[in-house]
Amino acid sequence: MSPCLLRSMLASLLVVLAYPQEHTIRVAANLVLTPVWISDAQGKAIRDLKPDDFEIEENGVKVAAVRLGGPGEAPLELAMVFDMSGSVYSRFELERKAAARFLNRILRPYDSIFIISVANEPKFLLQPTSSLDAALQAIAGISPTTQATAFYNSLAKASGLLRKAEKPEARHVIVALSDGEDNRSIENELEDVLQDLQITNCLFYSINPRGRSYNSNIFSRRAQEGMELLARQTGGASFVADSVDELAEFYDRIADELQGQYLLGYYSPATSGIGIYRRISIRVRGRPEVQVKARQGYYPK
Question: How far from the centroid of its chain's Cα atoms is residue 245's Cα?
Answer without folding.
Answer: 22
